[in-house]
Structures are given as C-alpha cells and as structure tokens.
C-alpha cells in the first residue's frame, strides 16, 4: 500500500501555487496525489509534460457528477492524454438522493459512464460521504447504488471518516466491497460529540483494523485527506498524518 494525499486538503495553496504545492507534497515523502478537476486551469499537454518531471504519481482525479453527465467525452479525452486513469465522482447534490429510486438511477447512470471509461482503459469510481448511510427499507443508499451498477463499471472509493460519522464500521464496508476498491480515503475523527476531522492516527478510528482490511483487499493507494484543518496549516496536517502512518508501520 502506498500513501497519497488528496489536494482538496490544500485547495487554497493549490490555487495560489499549483506546482510549488505539489513539490512540497513530494518533499514530505508522499508517493502520490489525487487531484480535483483541473481542466479549467491547465492544458492537458502542459500538465502531462510537467508531471513527467516530478516524482509524484497522480493516482486519480475527482470530477463533479454534473461534468460526468454533460461532458464525459471531454473528461475522458483530457485525462487520457494526461495519463490519469482513475476518475471519481466526489458528491451527489441533495435533490438527487431523496429516495431509494434515486440511488438506483444514479447507479445506472454511473454504470453507463463507467462502461465508456472502461472501454478506454480508464476507471470510474464513487466517493462516499455520510448521507449514503441513510437507510431505505433497511438498506443503505451506498449499497443500493453499488448494487445497481455493474461491478466492473463502477469502483468505490471509501472514506473512513464519513463511514464512521454515518454510524457504520469502516472495516465491515471495506471487507464487503473489497473487490471494488482501488483507492481509499483515510481520515480520522476526534473524540467527543463534535466529531471533527483529525490527522490520521490522532483520533478514534481503529487504524490497525482498517489497515488490515485494506491490505486484505489489496488496495494499492491510501489517500490522506482532511476536509477542514480548522485554521492549522494544511501542510502541517498532512505531515502529521504521514508521520503517524509511518510510526504505525502501516504505510
């Protein structure tokens, strides 16, 4: 298992100094990054040529559902040229997840889009938050979604914090869908009622069990992310996470 970081954690820094931020991530010892959609700010040929000079592997990219629906060919063209093969949908608007049939419809839509990606040697995935844990006749929205999509057309990118926040056991879900996971977000939670984000290894999540499940599932990339750093430096946050992971001898 190799360790990457999701650049959403450093979104302000990426906006002000894209390449400098990537160099700092690399210097910390991270092996890879997962980007947010950069098609509007960097030409594909420029991104591809610059990435070749860096030691970081770009393990994937988050692209909004709206863009997957409205311009999938452009998304696939751009990231195929860059050499990024994992494209993940990071979020579903609230008005598109009000009932079980919404999750069925989304599963079908993403399965069709994933088939187009797979035809070009690429992979489409879905990243969860906590709202996917809402039950419909006893079945979580996430399960409805993944069952509605063809397994070979849609992967799942688990987020450990949001699974825990939603009242589920991350280990159980990782084990349940082990064959569909290529990338996983690792994110910790503080103790107490507020359930704040925390650097990996500093909170309440059961990391030895999570990492054992990830190893058993043969997940190649674990991706550090912290949605909110609460005023602390994001560089310090991701450095602390990587330090803790190395001390746990799991990275």
Please explain how this structure is put together.
The chain is globular and about 50 Å long. An eight-stranded parallel β-sheet has the order 8-5-4-3-2-1-12-9. It has a domain of 64 residues. The mean pLDDT is 96. Helix 6 links the parallel strand 4 and strand 5. Helix content is 43%, strand content 18%. Helix 3 runs parallel beside helix 5 and helix 9 packs parallel to helix 10. The chain is α/β, with parallel strands linked by helices and 251 residues long. The termini are close together.
Structural class by helix and strand composition: alpha/beta
What is the number of helices?
A: 11
Uncertain residue ranges:
none
Overall average pLDDT: 96
Helix-strand topology string = EHHEHEHHEHEEEHEHHEEEHEH
Main beta sheet: 8 strands, parallel
CA-based gyration radius:
17 Å
- Give the strand order of the largest sheet, numbering strands 1, 2, ... along the chain: 8-5-4-3-2-1-12-9
Oligomer: single chain
What distance separates the N and C termini? 6 Å
Number of β-strand runs: 12
Strand content is 15-25%
Shape: globular
Question: What's this entry about, in short?
Answer:
The protein is 43% helix and 18% strand. It is α/β, with parallel strands linked by helices and 251 residues long. The protein has a domain at 173-221 and 237-251.
